[in-house]
Amino acid sequence: MREVTELRYLILALQREGNRQLATDLRPLGLTPSQAETLGLLAEREPLTLNGLGEMLVCESGTNPSRIVDRLVSAGLVRRVPNPEDRRQVLLTLTDHGRELARQVVEVEQRLEDRLVALIGDRPVAPALTLLRDMAAQVPAGRALDRRRG
Model-level pTM? Predict the structure, then answer.
């Protein structure tokens, strides 16, 4: 197997396992990883327009996140409010219940990060980050993440 192919499969394997663990940990909250990411972004940056949210989502990069938002609105976690500066737009904000779930999502994500830190141990992360950032900068999901880092 070529090294670049192995790298691709290693990234895929780790992404799938991390997403599986995250989905399992989010299940008691009644959230999917995509919904959790959306709540987290809103908690950090609300209010956001639907387009503004879509520009930063990694789970739905390059697409309109309206499907996720519709489910969160139906669940009473997100509300749509008219944008006072542009009546053609709506702003997305968290409800009190949404804010509480977003706080719980942070706790779930912290447990996942703790497991990753245990797997990494004392090895340096910076070289891997540099490689992955350079690669991700070339694709829409990577650019969405870059916008979040600011």
Answer: 0.88
